[in-house]
Automatic annotation (TrEMBL):
SUPFAM superfamilies: Winged helix' DNA-binding domain (SSF46785)
Protein name: MarR family transcriptional regulator
Species the sequence originates in: Desulfobacca acetoxidans
Length: 523
């Protein structure tokens, strides 16, 4: 079938070829004469419509060519705007600085982790891989929403899709595209709940399997019969939300829970930053960073390989305390890959066209999320260990332990202290012998905490990787070298279009098919 599209000269009309061309590889685009919007106007102008249509069909442009030209133009514009970031030694450092410049007080790590999590939307996903879905967790007014707002100001609008508080099924019935985008639920209460809820199951499938499938029974208004409406949305999609409590078990295992610091030191730093903004104002969002994310978005998906992954996996397995590590390991790899994508201008490609991550990319993630992964690997976070240790010290001194006294010792909010105690009780490291609801705690020490163990240090990964590479080369009878070369790297001469000029890779669906065209349609 040969299909012609009459593209009206306004902005909406010029955007149609890209939308329709995704599904019609052989689409031809008709550009109307100057001053003519559509066939109705041509008729009113006294034109010979059959002759006009035949002439315009003969002059029609393949949508593939038009899409490529539009994409190349857009990439060139974004590349020019993003040039300061592309030329920077480390774009990740610029992101950190941009977060601070917007008035973010205290350690910017939570915002930086959130930025990298949303960047993971751009990655190519194989079966079993996962982007970094994120839950920002803390008591009310501790800065969850502000952290998210600061990050979103550094992203173009096409990078994310906000879902305001409302029906849990909004995401399912919303017609917004989700592929390579982050979905922002301002409050986790807006997410479909319930382990057996079909809508919740559809969301979980989107997060893990990278596509949303949801079937709903609807009544046909014409016949009165019930039919099945199939809702299908392609990912990968990153979920980011905030909450004062953990999510349901099924959803909780699919998200990375990031506890936002609500200590007095953090509050003091936030107040100081607010005072500085009040006096001198905050820096506007960095336009170059926004353009940089748009530049990356236009080329998604980004295929990244981590050459030392076979070294990293057994080192983490030695430290793991439960099966959840399998999902968290997938998220760890996506975080490393996100750093690689940000540093893509300084990374090599292998012969399969994949960006090659380096140990330095792992170092960045190790420094950012090491404490979070200690909780995943051992079940005991740094904060939980501190809480259990303080409870033991207070018991040894015969001090009264309440949420208020414990919070004062830990220099945190009362509700945070209660949440940590409940978590310690659940894991058996603290025992509450008071069984009556609503009565004060009667806390005692429980099982010993597991040995500390987080992510393997970067130098351990590097040395193990080099050692294994050396053994492999000896087994093959090859000469030793300083570092292993597990994958084939493209030479500079072989490498092309690393800066995003390859629109054939970006839009593979626009390749021309030589099959015989059976009939013609004008739309």
């Amino acid at each position: 079938m040969k299909v012609f599209l009459w593209a009206e000269p306004d902005e909406a009309g010029q955007a149609l070829p890209a939308k329709i061309g995704k599904d019609l590889a052989d689409l031809m685009v008709i550009q109307p004469p100057d001053g003519i919007k559509d066939l109705s106007e041509a008729h009113l102008a006294g034109m010979d419509i059959p002759a006009l249509v035949e002439r315009l069909k003969a002059q029609a442009i393949p949508a593939a060519s038009l899409i490529k030209a539009q994409t190349d133009k857009r990439l060139a514009e974004l590349r020019e705007k993003a040039q300061p970031i592309l030329e920077a030694h480390d774009p990740l450092a610029l992101v950190r600085q941009a977060i601070v410049n917007q008035g973010y007080g205290g350690d910017p790590a939570p915002a930086l982790i959130c930025f990298l999590a949303i960047t993971s939307r751009l990655l190519a996903m194989r079966p079993g891989a996962m982007p970094v879905h994120l839950l920002l967790l803390s008591q009310a007014s501790a800065g969850k929403s502000y952290t998210l707002m600061v990050v979103l100001r550094l992203l173009p609008s096409e990078a994310y899709h906000p879902i305001p508080a409302g029906s849990p099924r909004v995401l399912i019935y919303d017609d917004a595209e989700l592929q390579h985008r982050a979905v922002i639920f301002g409050e986790a209460d807006s997410l479909p709940a319930g382990e057996d809820n079909p809508a919740a199951s559809a969301i979980r499938n989107l997060l893990q399997d990278h596509h949303l499938h949801y079937d709903v029974t609807v009544k046909d208004p014409n016949t009165g019969n019930f039919t099945v409406k199939k809702v299908r949305k392609e990912g990968p999609t990153v979920l980011v939300t905030t909450s004062t409590r953990r999510l349901g078990h099924q959803l909780d295992t699919r998200v990375f829970s990031l506890e936002v610091d609500d200590s007095r030191e953090k509050i003091a730093a936030a107040l100081e930053a607010q005072a500085e903004v009040e006096l001198n104002g905050a820096a506007p969002p960095d336009e170059a960073l926004i353009a940089f994310q748009g530049f990356l978005q236009a080329q998604a998906p980004w295929d990244v390989v981590i050459p030392f992954v076979k070294t990293l996996a057994p080192l983490i397995a030695q430290r793991a305390a439960g099966p959840r590590i399998m999902r968290d390991f997938a998220r760890l790899l996506s975080l490393v890959k996100s750093v690689t994508v940000l540093r893509q201008a300084h990374r090599q490609r292998d012969t399969k066209g994949r960006l090659v991550a380096t140990i330095e990319d792992y170092v960045a993630i190790f420094n950012l999320v090491g404490p979070m992964y200690e909780a995943t690997l051992t079940g005991a976070s740094k904060e939980l260990r501190e809480t259990v240790k303080t409870i033991g010290e207070m018991l040894d001194k015969g001090e009264l332990i309440t949420a208020t006294t414990l919070a004062a010792r830990l220099n945190i909010d009362r509700s945070t202290a209660s949440r940590r105690v409940n978590a310690a009780i659940k894991r058996g490291w603290v025992v509450n012998k008071e069984t009556k609801r609503g009565h004060p705690w009667d806390l005692h020490t429980g099982e010993p905490l597991p040995d500390q163990g987080g992510l393997p240090a970067p130098d351990e990964v590097q040395k193990t990787w080099e050692r294994l590479g050396s053994v492999a080369r000896k087994n093959k009878g090859e000469t030793e070298s300083a570092t292993p070369e597990p994958i084939d790297i493209l030479t500079e001469k072989e490498l092309c279009c690393t800066d995003g000029g390859d629109t054939e890779r970006v839009f593979p669906h626009i390749q021309k098919d030589d099959q015989e065209l059976l009939r013609e349609v004008i739309i």
